[in-house]
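The passage that follows is intended for readers who have already worked through the single-chain material. We present the inputs for a multi-component assembly, then the predicted structure in tokenized form, and finally a short commentary. You are encouraged to pause after the input and sketch how you expect the pieces to fit together before reading on.
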Amino acid sequence: MGYARGHGVEMRKISVRHSSWTDSGRVCRVAALDEAAGEWEPQLRLLVLVHNSDELASVSRLHDAGLQNIGWITGANLMPGDIVVLRDQHAFVLYRESDIHHSLLLTNRCNSYCLMCSQPPTRHADEWLVDEALDVIHHMRNSPAVLGLSGGEPLLLGARLRQVIEAIKARHPETRIDVLTNARLLGNQAVAASILDGLNAKVTWLVPLYGHAEFFHDFVVQAPGAFEETLSGLLALQVYRQTVQLRTVLIEPVLTVLPELCAFIGRNLPFIREFALMGCEPIGFALANREHCEVDLADWSDTLLQAGKTLRRHTVPFVLMNTPLCAIPRLLWPDAAMSISDWKNVYADECSQCAVKPDCPGLFAWHERGWTPSRILPIVELAS
Amino acid sequence: MSKFITKLSLFLVGIVPFAGKGGATGLPPEEAAWGILNEPSAVPLRPLNADYDNLFAGHRSHSSHRSHSSHYSSSSGSSSYTPVRPSVPSYTPPTPSPAAPLYVPSSSAASGSSTSSSSVPVRGAAAAAASTDVVSLTRAEKLELQIMRVQIKLTSLGLYSGAIDGIMGKSTVEALKLFQDLKRFPATGLMTTDTLNALGVPAVN
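Having made your guess, compare it with the prediction:
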């Protein structure tokens, strides 16, 4: 059993000591000592954060008094409300309330094999990830505004994906759910019905599209037939009146056909809520496929401008993500979104003199290992 | 705006001597409200539990159930103790421009609305309902949970050394009385709202 980061999932690993009677591998909620009594519920597992031997003894007394589902834990950088799983004297933090973006990894398996995959898929059976995600959902003590469901390809779970969505809806009715999926399996009516029939949770489906014709898309996702399947999936989502955000990643094979892709979306997929154009994360397969994935966006500014123009003409709402402002034409700055993840808003040394840094989405935390989306050019003066 | 605030504060400064004459108790509600605005430290305190939160304030012991009938409040089936404190939204997707295409074929619209209105549980949903433990507790279960939380707290405080079993037994009552005594509350041995608040235990309702 291993832990990886999913698309948009980052895992903290913290060295800890914990009560001997606490099971390894079970999801637990970290609680402050004075809040433990109020948080205790029979079906939760609580780990009380202790700082000294007195506190430790007081938790031990609770265990001796007959409470099986309460233990103690000690370690730096743990916070009350953290949802952790223990393994080999380490706590893996699966959920932290103070994070800006929350996500659950549902599977590592995938039916695509994208050129720039940030998290290469595995073939292992990993149903336990779903059980763990359900456990996390039950242990969350407050409801995040948005909870991402990520993979791998979550649709490979079939009805169990529905189970996860229903669990979130039951326990956290206010939470909006973002499902990162290639939607290919939704082209199958039976699968679509099992997941979408009667679904009234607040779900947004985040579906990538990398070209306006099968050759382009299938090449990027390295799966023959994927384009047709994704399109039928998108149409199934529309039939079920679901909210869809289309996304694409700005790598060379996509940029080559980007204006055509935008026109295709405007003509054929007008029901989407928005189209997100995202800079490529220099990690995972993207590092292996550098010749396709490493682009200097400054060289493509005409393409980006044309894409923006086409999308506006078709009144498709769009947003640019994961690119610093200096990499994209100034006309598109209003369409750039600040990044939503905690590890995306980092900046290079050059950025310290930049006039628009406060509005800039910045770079991925791991850009130093890979490449930047463009030459980083501090914007010194703002022409009005 | 700032001009307005300056004027407003000048106005309030003018009011204060007036208010002083009348005495704090005799203030009309509007002026009392202004007084609170004027006083930055006067944050209205909200207790952890209000009286109406506490279903079991009169619960004596496990054997006596007479108090249950008198205190049966209108805790409907909607009460599940799912904590819902939505955190601050961090990313707001851009709102679609007003001219966004809204092509909705009539056939799919009809089928869409019919599927969403029918509450026939599909297989996945049924399985989900079976495994998710968002349950509305029965009154007895709520009482047991509240007693257990109180026992946990009393154990942590070193006032109780019995079993944490959710039963309001003799030793639990004694521990409660001890705690109430320490807090100078009437030593009733009941889980009164004041006692729960002093313990920091949220009422189960």
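Commentary: The CA atoms of residues 4 and 136 of chain B lie 50 Å apart. The mean pLDDT of chain B is 64. How closely did your sketch match?
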